[in-house]
Amino acid sequence: MIWQVLAAMLGVAAFGVLFHVPGRSYLPCALAGGLSWGLYLLGQALGGSLFLATVIASAGLTLYSRLMAIGLCLPSTVLIVTGIFPLVPGAGIYYTAYYLMVGERELFAAKGLEALASAGAIALGILAGSEIPQKWLRRLAGLGIARKSKV
Fold first, then answer.
1. pLDDT recorded at residue 149
2. Degrees (nearest 5) of the Cα angle 47, 49, 52?
């Protein structure tokens, strides 16, 4: 499991370099990818379905991204877009197209629905993580209270 998380971190860091994210965000982006894949593996290990594990992973990633964005003064989308990379159902989409081309209709439908469910789970998790008010996240990050000085 640890090797998978490290591989996800390395892949996301490379993805960040490829897409020219700010240099100071390479490590936070890599941590975002490792977190998302780690939460996904944890969700599956606890008996969750593919859908539930993906929702948990993308919601956790969104919360992490929003908190880190406050501290780093970056848009949270920089961390979300790079950190979601390990969860994207690329193989599912590939096999969907493959089974369509070779005429395996049952496998095409099964892989297509699986890829669609995974993409929907990513969207649902991001939505769930985005629903927490920014004011609460600032308090959690310690910025909401620290700015008020008593003179």
1. 41
2. 105
